[in-house]
Design goal:
Elements: H1 2-19, E1 36-39, E2 42-46, H2 59-72, H3 80-84, H4 87-100, E3 104-108, H5 111-124, E4 135-140, H6 145-152, E5 159-164, H7 169-178, E6 187-192, E7 194-195, E8 200-201, H8 204-213, E9 217-221, H9 236-239, E10 248-252, E11 263-267, H10 269-278, H11 280-283, H12 290-305, H13 307-326, E12 330-331, E13 338-344, H14 346-358, E14 361-362, E15 364-366, E16 376-381, H15 388-404
Parallel strand pairs: 2-14, 4-5, 4-6, 6-9, 9-10
Antiparallel strand pairs: 1-2, 3-11, 7-8, 10-11, 12-13, 13-16, 15-16
The structure holds pyridoxal-5'-phosphate.
Length: about 400
Amino acid sequence: MYSKKLIDSIEKEFETLKSAGKFKVERELDGAQGAEVRIAGRQVLMFASNNYLGLANHPEIVKAGKEAIEQYGFGLSSVRFISGTETIHKILEKKLAEFLGVEDSILYSTNFMSNLGFFATITNETFGDSAPYLDAIYSDELNHASIIDAFKLCKKENVVKRIYSHGDVALLEKMLEEDKEKNYRFKIIVTDGVFSMEGYLAQLPELKKLAEKYEAMLFVDDAHAIGVLGKTGAGTPEHFNLHGQVDVLSGTFGKALGGAVGGYIAGKKKIIELLRQKSRTYLFSNSVPPSVVIASIKALDLLKEKRELLDKVRENSEYFRAGARKLGFKVLEGIHPIVPVMLGDAAKTQEISQKLLAKGLFVVGLWFPVVPEGAARLRFQISAAHTHEQIDQALEILSEVGKEMKII
Ligand SMILES: Cc1ncc(COP(=O)(O)O)c(C=O)c1O
């Protein structure tokens, strides 16, 4: 029977995943996201979420969401271009564009969808010209899964993909130089602003120079940087004094800015209008619900009013980094609240993450194939919501377990 064959195949696949240590187990939280959460009836310290500013359960965000539900209802039961556009969508898009220093922005249900939508729209669009064409995309090898999957929606016959080794600007330049005479229609350099496994930042100034020199468009997915990096929290461009100078930005409201859902593309008005007209993941998918829109507007307002949240997450990140280093752990250099503690060995990383959780510290262990073989790590994520006491407690648990396992 067909379904039995499928079920047997699934079981076989699960066995393979389990024996390779790749079978994912989801930890169930009971209650709100925060500096501490409840797991299996116990209060534990949370160092595994993207809640960088602590807005996921901030009282003003919660209040804004509640009021929005009362005023606008729960959902809009429609896509944007049929009957799903509210004035508040336009307000958020305008506010976001101003915040990022660009002309316009467009909301998607998620950042995954916005990335899929952008690349498919740009590269598949003929602009009424029947002549054959080729676009070229230059992508960092460590770019997010949504960017990699976005390429799959671009027609093979119209797109050349060139993947450069992580951060290898020299290799990227070599590729662009080789392609100089190839007459590509559009060239797009695409990078994550912050790479989520290391917390490393893209070398935006160099990428920007190359984009200008070779007449390519620069696309930065700033999911982990919006609300985190830069003087006002506007992300990696602001951090590198390139505020408003990156051609196209994508990002999410699902991490620092309230942590619910909602993605975007931001940049030139004409590009945004093209996406509104043609992007299938925008056109044929429901509009972002009012509670999320209003709470996201609130998140942008809070970021402006409470710069101390940005200072706090930075200061906390430094405090944790220095503390973990002082204990004798190998910590990757960086300034981002993603703080990887390098252990190398996958089995050891699996064991330590379980032991830490048993003692009340939730942190994610990452190992091959998520990170390179031999580079297994604990990925701590720091939040403005953490107090120094909570960070001290986390360090104490880390120290205890590290000593017990003879890591330090
Ligand atoms: C760089 C990057 N891009 C896109 C996404 C997807 O964001 P969303 O959850 O809004 O789909 C993520 C989230 O993990 C990310 O880290």
